[in-house]
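Worked example 4.2. Below are the chains of a multi-component assembly; read each line carefully before continuing.
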Amino acid sequence: MLKLTKKADYGLMALKYLAEHPETPALSAKDVADAYGIPPQLLAKVLQRLTKTGLLRSHAGMNGGYALARDAREISAFEVIHAIDGPFFITSCTKGTKSCELTPSCTIKEPLARVNETIAGVLKSISIHDLAEREHPAGKSGEHQGLVELTL
Amino acid sequence: MLKLTKKADYGLMALKYLAEHPETPALSAKDVADAYGIPPQLLAKVLQRLTKTGLLRSHAGMNGGYALARDAREISAFEVIHAIDGPFFITSCTKGTKSCELTPSCTIKEPLARVNETIAGVLKSISIHDLAEREHPAGKSGEHQGLVELTL
DNA sequence: AAATATCCGACTTCCCAGGTCCGATTTCAG
DNA sequence: CTGAAATCGGACCTGGGAAGTCGGATATTT
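Applying the procedure described above to all four chains together yields the following structure tokens:
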């Protein structure tokens, strides 16, 4: 149904939360989990993964926790999702680099690959900072115009 | 992982196939299934569903089968996917009409809803006819420019 | 040394996409 | 009018992956 996993959701939520608290040097997985009512152990794994891919920096021990490795503006939603869920493809046939194994007739995937890239482009254009933007004041404070081109 | 179901894939492939054979009055599910190496019974269900939603017209009995209910240009990929997989949402939290049940704090879903609509827009701009376009002659025969606007 | 963290692999549970089976109905051909 | 070929539609089975849990090892501060 074209939805991303909860882990990816959690990851985005966590990064957003971190972006909203730049004053604190580090926030523990439990802190974030409590803030959102997320299973702590699961969130922990997600954050570990994000650390491994270089989006977060971690610090063990007391008063340890996680912090953004870069400016929130420099982290895209795409990176987060990719780090957690791995490379995503719209078409269910394409697995990794291989094309449709036994059905070379699947000419559908070609145009859908364009769609896939378009979506990736949209996701890449959204940064954590955009997500953390203070509650949409029903106005145009942080509005941002992105233009996505689609060529079939 | 943000992929659409095989059923949706099958549906798109089938519609494309029908669009490529406008001469024949009707093609059976088995015909299409054989052409792509798809499980016939499964494809049958998909086609039944598409019939139910008005994208296809069916005819039982000998020499029966399915045919496009409208011109291929008038059927969007979005309609097909929606008919098969139901309404799709990027966020895993949103279920139907309800928002995140116990976590009103999930402020993530709001910006992602925009992304969701953007994707829907892309899918809506693609017709079955576009998919059936004769094998991309590496040229610009059937090229089509779609422009998708994204506002955060 | 005790408390608080991250770290990481293994494990369980549960849901659903993917696929199958079968029976009923409709339609046409000979 | 009978049988073949098709759609229709429900019930069912199954494997794999998402979601979550457990436990232990390691790091760091007080």
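Take a moment to check your reading of the output against the notes. The radius of gyration of chain A is 18 Å. Chain A is about 45% helix and 10% strand.
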